[in-house]
Amino acid sequence: MNINSLVTALVDILAGNICGIDGLVLGADTRATEGMIVAPLCRVLCPSCCCGAGTAADTAMTTQIISSNLELHSLSTGRLPRVATANHMLKQMLFRYQGHIGAALVLGGMDCNGPHLYSIYPHGSTDKLPYVTMGESAAASVFSDGYLTEEDAKRLVRDAIAAGIFNDLGSGSNIDLCVITNGRVDYLRPHDMANKKGCGHFQTTARFESAVTSKPLHVLRVRSLPNLYLPMTENIFSP
């Protein structure tokens, strides 16, 4: 499968997207992840996903609210919402709070018009670009424009996320990927471990010998101290 590279890197929770004619790949590190409580890849509404950087609580709750609103929208209209609808709801919500919600989001998904990729900033501004980076910029240097197979796209996203992990103290742990194609969403968790913990070689302290050997004492200098006279004070509490 040929995937036209439409790439996004996002670090703090780092995410990388490669979007094209047939599908798109999302990726994230797991530094601020706690199971599904704070997930790096949040499904807004199938087949759309959202990745977030910034305050983990803000990104998690923002995507949950929009996911619920999109579900109600789907029940009301009788069809799946388009990715542009999710983008519109997200930027309207963030604009009302004027940046006080610390959620920088990357929204990607497939609809009847094909794949889409949006970057959404905390103040509510959005961009639809062939590739975009948010958060740690080290991942952006890894991305390149071109035509890739699915495996090449996964490898490119993995390398971009690893670059963000190695250059940002706020990112780390595992690398998660999400592959979105027409009618299919595959989560790869974990896809890779960028920096595995090393194994320490622990040793005990040096063992002392059972026999005790006396060491000679060498006197270097003898100095006499003057007698100190401490005057006695009267006890004022005595009768």
Automatic annotation (TrEMBL):
Q: GO molecular function of the protein, one example?
A: threonine-type endopeptidase activity
Q: Which domain of life is it from?
A: Eukaryota
One family from Pfam that matches here is: Proteasome
What keyword terms does UniProt attach to this protein?
A: Hydrolase, Nucleus, Protease, Threonine protease
Q: Which residues cross the membrane?
A: none
Q: Which Gene3D superfamilies match?
A: Glutamine Phosphoribosylpyrophosphate, subunit 1, domain 1 (3.60.20.10)
**CC per GO annotation:** cytoplasm; proteasome core complex
Single Gene Ontology BP term? proteolysis involved in protein catabolic process
Coiled coil, from the record: none
Q: Does the keyword Ribonucleoprotein apply?
A: no
Keyword Transmembrane helix annotated: no
Q: Which PANTHER family match?
A: METALLOPROTEASE TLDD, PROTEASOME SUBUNIT BETA TYPE-7
Supply the name of the protein: Proteasome 20S subunit beta 7
Q: What is the species listed in this Swiss-Prot or TrEMBL entry?
A: Oncorhynchus tshawytscha (Chinook salmon)
